């Protein structure tokens, strides 16, 4: 199985669809979210060659074949101060940046690379953006010439450090559910389709927080047992992942988001890549809310572009892989 070692003996397992016949192909590096690892992107692979795309998907730390967090890192995640947690995020961002750097070097990738963070994976793609000032100049130079696009795909508001609105709901926080049922309830909830009334109003009270569209099957319920086993690691997701999108990390995540997206010195170090925020219009409330809040903050800046995805739920890349790749191609060509 392919793996790259970066930093202090940290290895990332990854999958690779392989080079394309056209030497000017584009490489997309995917960073997965909570529980659902690199396997969740494999439906994209058959449709990559026709679009001159190379699909590389890493497994984050704690996930199969990649280096788990150290005892000290886990202690920081669970009990660290805001300063400790901010430093932890920077360290993870440096590792992701180094991974992309080594990947470009070892695979001789063309100077057309995009980074796609999905769901909670956006925490780590944003961390890479924010930590460019922490890597050696030789690494910065290679990233600056190669990485042209960043995509924040359906990030939850909590992962960007955005405070929750009143009456915010997530099955993982639901005290009315027995603890052992919250994980399965979350899987169904996060992969459901939601009908949100009047999205143009940006009225939080019109977001459907609990009740999904009963006429559509949640993605997780459409998977066979074999498919679910190939895309998810429930043990990995339950160890130390959930706290990263809870209130304990909000201060560190808010600072990271601001630095990554709105610090002109940081974006210049990257060579001013295009940053796209993509969210499904039928996804969970917190991903829609994230788009609203981030777009409000970006109103005076042209550094982040926004694109709503009609009819898409949180698992758009699994449900509609061809359409999803076409959306990315459209953004990269704009």
Describe this structure in words.
- The protein has 13 helices and eight strands.
- The protein is an alpha/beta fold and 334 residues long.
- It has one domain: 3-Layer(aba) Sandwich (Rossmann fold), CATH 3.40.50.1820.
- Helix 2 (82-107) packs across helix 4.
Topology, pairings included?
Elements lengths: L2 E4 L3 E7 L9 E6 L21 E6 L12 H9 L2 H26 L5 E6 L3 H9 L6 H10 E7 L25 H12 L28 H4 L2 H7 L2 H7 L9 H13 L1 H6 L4 E7 L4 H13 L6 E6 L6 H4 L1 H13 L1
Parallel strand pairs: 3-4, 3-5, 5-6, 6-7, 7-8
Antiparallel strand pairs: 1-2, 2-4
Helix pairs in contact: 2-3, 2-4, 2-9, 3-9
Keyword list:
Rossmann fold; eight-stranded mixed beta sheet; globular; alpha/beta; 334 residues
Quick overview:
The protein has helices spanning 71-79, 82-107, 122-130, 137-146, 179-190, 219-222, 225-231, 234-240, 250-262, 264-269, 285-297, 316-319, 321-333; strands spanning 3-6, 10-16, 26-31, 53-58, 113-118, 147-153, 274-280, 304-309. With 334 residues, it is of the alpha/beta class.
In angstroms, what is the radius of gyration?
19 Å
| Gap from first CA to last CA | 36 Å
Q: What is the assigned CATH homologous superfamily?
A: Alpha/Beta hydrolase fold, catalytic domain
Can you tell me the overall shape? globular
Segments where pLDDT lies below 50 for 5+ residues?
A: none
Average pLDDT reading: 95
The CATH class, by name, is: Alpha Beta
Organism: Lyophyllum shimeji (Hon-shimeji)
InterPro entries: AB_hydrolase_1 (IPR000073), AB_hydrolase_fold (IPR029058), AB_hydrolase_sf (IPR050266)
Protein name: AB hydrolase-1 domain-containing protein
Pfam families: Abhydrolase_6
């Amino acid at each position: 199985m392919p793996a790259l070692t970066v930093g202090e003996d940290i290895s990332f397992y990854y999958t690779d669809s392989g080079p394309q016949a056209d030497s000017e192909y584009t490489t997309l590096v995917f960073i997965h979210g909570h529980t659902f690892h690199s396997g969740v992107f494999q439906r994209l692979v058959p449709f990559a060659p026709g679009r001159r795309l190379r699909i590389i998907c890493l497994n984050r730390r704690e996930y199969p074949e990649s280096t788990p967090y150290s005892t000290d890192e886990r202690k920081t995640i669970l009990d660290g101060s805001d300063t400790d947690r901010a430093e932890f995020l920077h360290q993870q961002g440096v590792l992701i940046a180094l991974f992309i750097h080594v990947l470009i070097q070892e695979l001789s990738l063309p100077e057309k690379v995009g980074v796609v963070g999905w769901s909670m994976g956006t925490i780590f793609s944003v961390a890479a953006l924010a930590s460019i000032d922490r890597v050696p100049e030789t690494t910065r130079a290679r990233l600056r010439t190669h990485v042209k696009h960043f995509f924040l795909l359906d990030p939850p508001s909590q992962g960007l450090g955005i405070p929750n609105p009143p009456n915010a709901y997530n099955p993982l926080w639901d005290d009315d559910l027995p603890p052992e049922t919250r994980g399965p309830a979350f899987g169904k909830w996060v992969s459901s389709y939601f009908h949100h009334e009047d999205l143009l109003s940006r009225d939080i009270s019109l977001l459907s927080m609990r009740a999904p569209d009963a006429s559509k099957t949640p993605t997780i319920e459409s998977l066979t047992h074999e498919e679910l086993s190939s895309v998810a690691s429930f043990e990995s997701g339950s160890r130390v992942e959930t706290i990263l999108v809870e209130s304990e990390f909000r201060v560190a995540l808010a600072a990271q988001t601001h630095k990554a997206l709105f610090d002109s010195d940081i974006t210049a170090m990257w060579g001013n890549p295009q940053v796209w925020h993509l969210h499904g219009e039928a996804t969970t409330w917190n991903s829609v809310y994230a788009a609203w809040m981030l777009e409000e903050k970006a109103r005076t800046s042209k550094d982040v572009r926004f694109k709503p995805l009609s009819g898409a739920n949180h698992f758009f890349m699994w449900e509609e892989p061809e359409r999803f790749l076409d959306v990315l191609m459209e953004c990269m060509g704009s």
